[in-house]
Amino acid sequence: MHRGGREGVHMIGVTGATGNLGRIVVEVLRERAGEVLAFGREQADYDKPSTLAEAFHGVSRLLFISSPELDPGRRTAQHLAVVGAAAEAGVEAVVYTSFHRIPGIFAVHGLTEDAIAASGMAYSILRNPFYTEPFVAAAPTHSAGGHTAGGRSVEGPTHSSRGRSVEGSTHSAGGRSAGELTHSAGGQSAGGQPAGGESVGELTHATGGQPLNTAYRADLAEAAAGALLSDRIANRTYELNGPLWTFPELAASRGTTAREGEVAGPMGWLHGFAKAGALATQTPDLEELLGRPARAPR
């Protein structure tokens, strides 16, 4: 395929295009821009640097979706390989899906951001928040019998690695990604209920009443597309988050109530971040890229 593009038109490439986030980005880009190069693992394998420069040849703007790899050392090597290959291939600008600066999660993203900044390519860094979906779809409920149960399981948006799904930009804690904390191979949701089971009763949370700044995957995908299609990519870091919300507000919107209690298992880790106030920051950056307000949880 000829990749030179029409004069004045940027050829856009998307890595991780077979993942849940990448697929949405590609759909949006094809609606708005037409031709897009969608790279799955076969075309651009993060573990095989030789495939990367070849895949990126002719691309002027690249969306680099962070790797789902859980091992920090291997993941760092993958990310540096992508950045190096993009620069070698003559990519003019890269948009990278990073993550909020939360200790224990941000380290690899920080190294990647530094490598991109030093590469000579123009860049936009998108520091994504946690996705809304695991919180609202797997929100634990307290039934009349006193048991805490989960709702639907939610698989992460980036491409899978050897069958492991990952949430958000692949952030791990204790050797497990946030996606693994909300979706298991056995089809069980975070609360232990079978996937697809409807939960009833009041919402149980362990956030201490702190607000959350999560965002829906589709909004983050649309924002990434917007960053790629912007008139100028000007070496900017975007702190992306959705509108602040609380579990009592979510419960009220569903016609039920919320109670503070123990959230056992995987989702307890995420609720702990919220309780510590780590998810309470707010910026206008996501709304700016979307050109509209981000969607609130429902």
Automatic annotation (TrEMBL):
Chain spans, region Disordered: 142-208
Protein origin, superkingdom: Bacteria
Gene3D superfamilies (alphabetical): NAD(P)-binding Rossmann-like Domain
Sequence ranges of Gly residues compositional bias: 188-199
Transmembrane annotation, as ranges: none
InterPro entries for this protein: NAD(P)-bd_dom_sf, NmrA-type_oxidoreductase
Protein name (database record): NmrA-like domain-containing protein
